[in-house]
Design brief:
By secondary structure, the chain is an alpha+beta fold. The protein contains 11 helices and 16 strands.
């Protein structure tokens, strides 16, 4: 089973500068290759990974700064871009910015990575062209290294190893037949159908005020100055501290859920759509004037949703469920907070407040989040029973046969076709 191990690096000043150059080269290759793909699409053509990798070899001969960095890191960048375009579409893939995106690059060949343990607390790894790098051994690797990813978070560098720990997915759970529904909220992060709550405050009030002060300090400094860089580093350190708390909470909650239950049911929440901004409402009677649209209150709700890390909790639960044999599924969230779990009557008036649910039909009184979690569990049991033992729960439904056959034929034709002549005006790598 593939697992991740993340450690903090102790790079020298020379290694840190070289890592910055590698990250900058990978970012430049990503942006250039993405622009090339979009240019081809505008002209009704297509360019894929193989042609871009061939042009990358030629570009390394013309630009020395590309030849200095490890070549397979640049090739891995093209592979990641190809997968992102195939998954999301060429026009939805985002650019990589030097200001907003921290440098990150991957060494994909695990056979070229050597890891040695120095003592109880420290170890070192030999990476191509980067040399020996020391990292804090907070936990054993526990497997064979498949690849390594170097990234910078704030002012510190980290290495993430993908290792094969030799374990297999458990087929049976320790508590067969146990199930739980999980409702994710803003007041309480996680509410279970058995009435238990998992909650933690990630950013304290004093830290929120301190973050606002740091943001003001950044805004008052001059762009490109050393003072602005120091102020931005303080903001990043505080954000990393809060982010680590959120990640730790997700891991601990996922461990408890996966260890205690064989079936875990979440709501299929579209968090990106839920946290979208409110469109302005022009006043038809007064040009240039806009009506009140509740954007301020919606912004507060968006911040509260993003602060709880709903998607991270589900992702951590799925990762942990591989070791315990737990099934994790999602159900339609429609009317789960308005339906009574006793009489199944749906009435929005039954939700008296955020915490009180009083059914207008049968008079059932319960915590609103617990009632929603029970409805989620009921829907999950029904969906899990319909899936059957031969169907993998949580898998995507296959598309129609005609579409899949056409895709296979198009892929085969593209592989056997000769490379098209390059178009004038299209940027090269």
């Amino acid at each position: 089973m593939l697992s991740g191990r993340r450690y903090r690096l102790d790079l020298t000043e020379e290694q840190s500068g070289f890592a910055e150059r590698i990250g900058g080269a990978c970012r430049s290759v990503w942006n250039t290759a993405l622009e090339q793909r979009r240019t081809y699409r505008r002209r009704g053509r297509f360019i894929g990974y193989h042609e871009q990798a061939r042009q990358l070899v030629e570009a390394k001969q013309d630009f020395g700064w590309l030849g200095e960095v490890p070549g397979h890191c640049l090739q891995q960048t093209l592979i990641d871009l190809d997968q992102a375009c195939a998954r999301h579409g060429t026009w939805k893939v985002r650019w990589k910015s030097k200001a907003r995106n921290a440098p990150s690059f991957r060494f994909p060949e695990g056979g070229k990575i050597t890891v040695e343990r120095l003592n109880r607390r420290w170890a070192r790894a030999k990476l191509p062209k980067l040399g020996w790098v020391r990292f804090r051994l907070t936990r054993p690797l526990g497997g064979k290294v498949k690849n390594a990813t170097i990234s910078r978070d704030g002012r510190h560098w980290y290495v993430s190893f993908l290792v094969d720990d030799g374990l297999t997915t458990s087929e049976r759970h320790a508590n067969p037949g146990s199930a739980v529904g999980v409702d994710r909220g803003v007041v309480k992060v996680v509410t279970r159908s058995d009435g238990r709550f998992h909650h933690q405050v990630f950013a304290r009030e004093r830290e929120v005020e301190h973050a606002r002060k740091l943001q003001r300090d950044v805004a008052r400094t001059m762009r490109g100055s050393a003072r602005r860089r120091r102020a931005a580093a303080r903001v990043a350190d505080l954000a990393r501290k809060i982010r680590n708390r959120r990640q730790d909470f997700a891991a601990r909650t996922a461990h408890v859920l996966a260890a205690d239950f064989e079936l875990i049911v979440f709501e299929a929440l579209a968090v990106r759509n839920m946290t979208a901004g409110v469109e302005p409402r022009p006043d038809p009677g007064r040009p240039g004037v806009f009506l009140v649209n509740g954007a301020a209150s919606k912004s507060g709700l968006n911040r509260a949703i993003l602060d709880k890390g709903w998607h991270r909790i589900e992702l951590a639960t799925r990762s942990r469920a591989r070791h315990t044999g737990t099934h994790v599924i999602t159900v339609n969230p429609a009317y789960t907070s308005q339906r009574c779990n006793v009489c199944t009557v749906v009435d929005r008036k039954s939700r008296e407040s955020q915490a009180v649910f009083r059914c207008t039909s049968c008079g059932h009184i319960e915590h609103a989040d617990v009632n929603a979690a029970k409805n989620i569990l009921t829907a999950g049991r029904a969906e899990h029973a319909q899936a059957g033992p031969a169907v993998r729960v949580g898998a995507r439904k296959p598309r129609n046969r005609v579409g899949r056959k056409a895709n296979r034929q198009a892929t085969a034709a593209q592989a056997t076709a000769q490379p098209e002549p390059e178009l004038a005006g299209i940027p090269r790598l």
